[in-house]
Amino acid sequence: MQNKGKIFAWTLFDFANTAFYVIILTVGYPLYFKEIITGNSPNSDFLWGMTFSISMLFVALISPLLGAIADYGAGKKKFLAIFTALCILATATLFFTGSSMIFWGILLLVIANIGFEAGLVFYDSFLPEITSERSYGRVSGYGFAMGYVGSLITLLIVFPLYEAGFQEANLFNVRISFILAAVLFFLFALPLFIFVPDKQHKKKFEAAFFVEGYLRLKSTFIDFKKYKNIAVFLLAYFIYIDGVNTVIIFSSLFARETLQMSFTEIILLFIIVQTSAIIGSTIFGIISDHIGHKKTLMITLLIWIGIVTSAFFVEDKNMFYIIAGFAGVSLGSSQSTSRSLMSLLTPAEKKTEFFGFYSFFGKASAILGPFVFGIISSLIDQRTAILAIAFFFIAGLLILTRVNDPHSEMKISAVD
User: How far apart are CA 386 and CA 194, in angstroms?
Assistant: First the structure.
């Protein structure tokens, strides 16, 4: 299969997993969890943030080890299949949750999100195998753009199911959307497993790989001083992506509770976000290949600071739609450009292992942000909680300025 075909099959996985992202993490299940499972409990924001933090803690602990194991020879595709199946099965089982089933509502989401997030370690690490360094930015952008197209289509599909709200008579339709998320994930994930080869697959999986994976991981920790530039970037990423993740998982709850938006208005809100994210991931992906991933990320973080500050003051729903448009552009750019910069910074022989660290810092950061938001929201209000997220973007931006940009160095070398 030609590279273009492999890239297309790879991007379809982004299309697939956004069905889970939209229905379970951002629109449907968060509101179902708050209004039906917890019965609008005053602690619902705290419980939602805690659930997300627990799943991210587990993923953070296993991601570097899994990346090392896959690099050694167990195969990225095999691990990706295991975690994808875990996410799909747990997501479909959410259909059986209902009023006051807080334990099961939390447990199933934890399992599903572990499958979703752990799988991304292996999905992201396919990027260097399907394209060249000079095209990391645009191909990564294509993947996220395809994901946002999937999000947009998913929103249009579930709109009739959510239009009547979360009234008792409509709860069956809402629960059907959870099965729909699982089915869409399964169908559009298949092309990657069929058409994209796993170049790292060398040996049949054995328990000894865990030992070897641990030894490689330990070696990387010891030698990490050789990769100071990567360490600085990962620290910046750790902080600013925490802000991004927190905005994502609380956005629908903020729109519903603080701005009193209807379910139809929330669907429209996320249609705006996904549409603008397609633009952001595509255009900023091309821009990053020209001006550099670091500069592009810095621009994106400045926009994020403006977004969360504006959200603190916003009262008008129409103004919030405008803010959502900027959020979508920033979301697409920050995610795709971060992945591109990470691909450019890491040595070829440790791509999967370092993407394990990349995932580790991304997941570990998501432990803190949602927890902080949940605490502040429960003690004060959601507006104060969203403003507090600006700290993550400001701190991440300041640290990012200390990262050496390989793009600039390549340009200097070309001039010389």
Answer: 42
| Cα distance between residue 280 and residue 26, in whole Å | 19
Domains recognised in the chain with CATH numbers? 3-195+207-415 (1.20.1250.20)
List CB contacts of 114: < 8 A, sequence separation 6 or more. 55, 58, 59, 83, 86, 87
369: pLDDT strictly greater than 90:
no
What CA–CA distances, in Å, run from 136 to 49, 288, 290, 314? Answer: 33, 9, 12, 37
Q: Is the pLDDT of residue 73 over 60?
A: no
Encoded amino acid at 167, one letter? Q
How many Cβ atoms are within 10 Å of 65's Cβ, its own excluded? 17
Closest CA to 397 of 291, 301, 293, 310: 301
What local confidence, expressed as pLDDT, does residue 206 receive? Answer: 62
Alpha-carbon distance of 36 to 6, in angstroms, equals: 42
Q: What is the pLDDT of residue 213?
A: 64
Among 396, 382, 121, 87, CA closest to 239:
396
